[in-house]
Specification:
D-Maltodextrin-Binding Protein, domain 2; 2 domains; 10-stranded mixed β-sheet; 10 helices; 10 strands; elongated
């Protein structure tokens, strides 16, 4: 048994890939999914995953060789029966955000941390946060289904993890933020960890990342 710590943004792909890896190698994998900030806090507290997939800048601090695997931008989703709002340019995005009953975003995820800075930059933080649905972690689009919010902000691959939600599209390019993800073997990892790391960088993995709404890592296009 080896342990994999994985960022939520690649969860859909990883859940597809791990059973294939186990079938091919006979190596069981225990997977922990959380935002990068939470995963890193676990490691700081003493957790020792055999393999970690997370935001590149954070993985690099572990001092192990890293391999870029994918990248993704931030997007917007609405509920299944809601008309699609206009987010095609910054002025209309601003209007969409301020007219929403509630906007859901993550407190600890990379997309939520960025969104908090974005609404500050747009000068609408007080207005949006006064009625925002801020979730500690997890998939913000779930708040669309239970009525807590009518807009959800998260990385595109995470929005797509909730199939009932309607993904409106990515943020306008001038305010877009991309997260890059890399994989590394953990300190003191089991010998089989390198096999999983290499599998998560292979062709099958690249195809799974694409299906999950991510783009190839720089240099893989």
């Amino acid at each position: 048994m080896i342990t994999l710590f994985s960022v939520l943004a690649v969860k859909k792909a990883v859940e597809e890939l791990v059973p294939v890896f186990t079938a091919e190698t006979g190596i069981a994998v225990e997977t922990v999914f959380d935002p990068t900030t939470v995963l890193m806090k676990r490691i700081e507290a003493g957790a020792q995953p055999d393999v970690i997939v997370a935001v590149t800048e954070s993985v690099a601090t572990l001092g192990q060789p890293i391999v870029p695997v994918a990248k993704v931008g931030v997007g917007v989703a609405v509920g299944p029966d809601v008309s699609v709002p206009d987010i095609s340019a910054v002025p209309v995005l601003r209007e969409t955000l301020t007219s929403a009953r509630s906007v859901a975003y993550s407190r600890t995820g990379a997309s939520g941390i960025y969104f908090a800075t974005l609404i500050e930059h747009l000068g609408i933080a007080d207005e949006v946060n006064a009625r925002a649905t801020v979730v500690e972690k997890g998939f913000t689009a779930l708040a669309l289904l239970d009525g807590r919010a009518d807009l959800a902000i998260q990385q595109m691959s995470e929005l797509k993890f909730v199939p009932e939600a309607r993904v409106v599209g990515p943020l306008p390019e001038e305010v877009q933020h991309y997260s890059d993800f890399s994989v590394a073997v953990g300190t003191g990892a089991a010998p089989d960890a390198t096999r999983l790391r290499d599998f998560l960088c292979g062709q099958l993995a690249r195809e799974a990342y694409t299906r999950a709404g991510l783009a190839p890592a720089e240099g893989d296009e």
